[in-house]
Structures are given as structure tokens and as C-alpha cells.
Amino acid sequence: MLKILVTGAAGLIGGEVCARARTRGHAVTALVRRNRHVRGNDGALVPGVHVVAGDITAPMLGLDPARHDIDLVIHCAASLEFDAPEEELQRTNVEGTRQAADFAHACDAALLHVSTAYVCGLRDGVIEEGPVPPGTAFANGYEASKARGEQVVRDSGVPFAIARPSITLGDSASGAIRDFPSLCNVFRLMARGKIASFPASASSTLNLVPIDHVAEGILRIAERMEQARGGTFHLVGDRPTPSAELAHGVARIAHFPDPQIVDPASFDITRLPPAQRRVLGRMLETFGSYFRRGPVFDDSRFRELTGLACAPTDRAWMDRLIQHAIAAGYLPSAPPVVASINQASAHRANAHPDSAAPAAHAHR
């Protein structure tokens, strides 16, 4: 039996890690800040956890290490806002990680740090399970702060392992997810007819991973910390998913509009109607780079350590995600009335004058 402290225990990943750890018989101390309810991905309260109030930005997480008998700290807490102010990202994702490492050291415990696969930054091609190379360029402050947090862990002197989930979505079997990640807002706006034209490179991909694979993977690393010590592990989907496939996947549900996917080199946002221009401008500022790159995450070390392979992230899984999003009220259950007008105007704004067909067809 492990004695685990989980930071960010009220969050999506932290809560599901707590649920699985308790099912396995581990003792779990759940660190929370405001929300004292620790729930698994199914929304049910996790029984048998010891909930403590703390703050990852405070010295020693706001706790007294002498009062906690801990083998392992699983550090899930983080600011996930891609466009958060730099001060907030530094305070939470870097200095907060330092406090988690200091607490682990004071408890003579190991540290399993939950980072993100997207510390790869703007690199394409195969991304190995190792330290972030010096000079890596990042798409936003969130990615950069998570990379700095990893370096804090490596420099801490605490026995550690680093888990890097990719974009975490619904359960592999049901598609259910308790909280939708912010990147889903792009597809939500497409489904509502607010974005009818979107710039994405033909080669761009996103790596999507089910929540059950992430939480189970973290727990298996935790149970193998001696072998995992000093390692970095990708908890990722079984394939990179083309951006256009995702956009058109939402449109496979009959009442959703099919967005026009346009090559970024020929996309002119100024030619869109004002309402679309405002919405899309905000989205592109935050998420645009994710639709221009194509990292391929190697997870061979993770699979060798844990024996765990990700369930297929195929069209059937995507359909389950979409159906759950509709049932949960995240996606609309009725067709948006502005879709046909917006799509026509977006096509006129961005179609090449010599083209007789929407640019989206070239990506299907």
C-alpha cells in the first residue's frame, strides 16, 4: 500500500487518480484549495480520502510535513489557462511545483510530477520521452511554464518521475468527461455555427488521450517509482489525429454545420463577417498554433514500464465523445440558426477565386 498525497485532487485528472488509488487500496491524502469535494471522472465522490486544505503556492503547500506520513506526492495541480498572465503561470506552474518538491523532500517522499506532452513546444516530428531540449520555442506561456516546472523537478534532488499527458478527453468506453478542456471551445463554437471557416495546416495533428488511460497510467507509474525514477513518460493517444478529421467529426452529427478548413497561408480573417472575426480572432490567439503543427509522441518507455497501451482513439471513440458532449449540454442539441448564413459568407471570404469547391474538401 502506498501513502500518497495528490495535489489538484479536485480537478479532472487528480480526482480520477484519487478514485483509482483508493480502489487499489492505497491511502490517499487529497490536497484541495476551495473545492473540498474529490470526485472521479464519473462525478461520484471518492470514498475514503483524507481531504486537507492547502495552497500549492504557499511554503510546503501550506501544510506541516511532520503531520503527514507520505511515500509519494503526485503533483497534478496547475494553471491550465493557456492565456493566463505570466505572473500567474510562474506562481502556479513553476513556484507551485517547487513547493511540491520541497514538501516531498521534507517528507522523505518521491515526487511524480504531472506535466504536459506539449512541452515539446513548436517542434514537429517524433518527440522522445526525455528532457525538453534547450532553446525550445513554445506556443504560449502555459507550455513554457510547464517546461520550467519540469526543470524545477529535475533540479530538486528529490526522487522523481515526470508524466506527460497530451490533450485529455473522455473515457475510452463511454466518452464521458467531467470537465471539458479549454481547447474544446474551438469545436464547440464550430458546432454552434459561430466559426464557419478555420485555418489549419493539412499536416497538422492533435494528440487526444482518454482520461482513463491518463489516470491509470499515472497510477501505474506511481506503483513502479523505483523503476520509473528519473524517467519521463508520455501518456498519449495511440495516434496523432488530423485537425481536419476532428473538425469534420463534429459535423458528422447531422445537425452540426461542417466548417470550412482553410490553409493558413491563404486565410484572411479580415474578410470574415465582424462577429465571426471577433470570435475567431480570440480563438486563434490562444489555440491557433495547435492547428499548424504535427508532433508525434513516442511512448515506448511508458508502455515498457507499465504494460499499458491506449485504447483506440478512432472515429467510434470520437463519436462517443460528441454524443456525451451533447448529452451533457456542452454541445447544442439543435441546429444553430446562423450556420448556413455564416458558412456561405466564410466560403466567399476565403475561397480561392479559381476554386469551384470549398477548401475543406482537400483535407478530407
TrEMBL record:
GO terms for molecular function: alcohol-forming very long-chain fatty acyl-CoA reductase activity. Residues 352-364 have a biased composition (Low complexity). Residues 345-364 are annotated as: Disordered. This is Sugar nucleotide-binding protein. One of its GO terms (biological process) is long-chain fatty-acyl-CoA metabolic process. Pfam families: NAD_binding_4. InterPro entries: FAR, FAR_NAD-bd, NAD(P)-bd_dom_sf. Transmembrane segments: none annotated. It comes from Alteraurantiacibacter aestuarii. Residues 47-217 form the Thioester reductase (TE) domain.
